[in-house]
Amino acid sequence: MAWYPGAQKLELQPESDAQPAIIPTQLIFHSIAAPWTPARTYEYWRETNLESHFGLGYDGSLAQYIGTQTRADANYQANRRPDGTGAVSVESASNMDATDPWSPAQVEALIRLGVWVHQQHSIPLRICRTAADPGYGYHRLFPEWSAGGTACPGDARVRQFHDVVFPGIVARATGQTPAPTPPEFDVPYTLGEYTGTTVSLPPNIWTTLTLGRLDLVAGAQSYTATAYLTVKAPVGGVLQGRFYHHRADGSRWDGPIVERATTDGSSFVDFTHAGSISTGETARFEITYAPANATDTAPATITAARARGLYWK
Ligand SMILES: [Zn+2]
């Protein structure tokens, strides 16, 4: 039996062991006429002798109750035909009348599942032409798929099947459109570096700082970063800082310069940049100091430095 890695496994017994094997040749979409989570649908299937292979929540969460090479009883004669072929079924949360459209998260989850059954079970990328024809369909498409007829999955979702879901499966499976970055992979990495190493800044020279590390952001696509510095220098001087992108061939892209004035005692200054970064580039930070008195040759002194930020790979 096959379990979809994109779904939470909530195995239904005794059906999972007791029901006969199928060769999956179809994927049939349903609405369950209840706004249920996959876990709630699992509870419901445990109380009945019906079940689908998959259950889909409004938020796109998906559970699998039975392996796709085992019969599930949601599509009447399509569950398992005399030749051993059968349909994989997916129930989806809906309103009580099954009149609402699939949510964007449901559409995306159905497209992904549709691509997986194509790859896993070689289900052909077409809409079923007859009740036993391999391909994709929705519950009411053929009377043989329900005992006594059904409106499932509802008019709005039948339209979405034709306009969005099935074309989306075809496009994704044939590589015509890339999969969007799923939200769960959008969690950023954290930049958090500190150094108490003293650094001298001679006047009017750009100095690249090692804020715990030289390459503050590497192997990323975008980032936001701030350098927080504690600086000792006479009041009235100017600190200019900027992030830049360093490339392997030694060339660079310079970010905008940010300017801060030195104050009495220690100065606490910050420099922020947010940007995107190309493959192979790293983000570094550099600073230059201009004393209040142009003839002053004494360096400013950095006594502590922090780098804080977020970046996305
Ligand atoms: Zn149905």
UniProtKB/TrEMBL annotation:
InterPro entries (UniProt xref): Amidase/PGRP_sf, Amidase_domain
Q: Which domain of life is it from?
A: Bacteria
Domain N-acetylmuramoyl-L-alanine amidase spans what residues? Answer: 25-154
Q: Which Gene3D superfamilies match?
A: Peptidoglycan recognition protein-like (3.40.80.10)
Where are the annotated segments for Disordered? Answer: 77-99
Q: What is this protein called?
A: N-acetylmuramoyl-L-alanine amidase
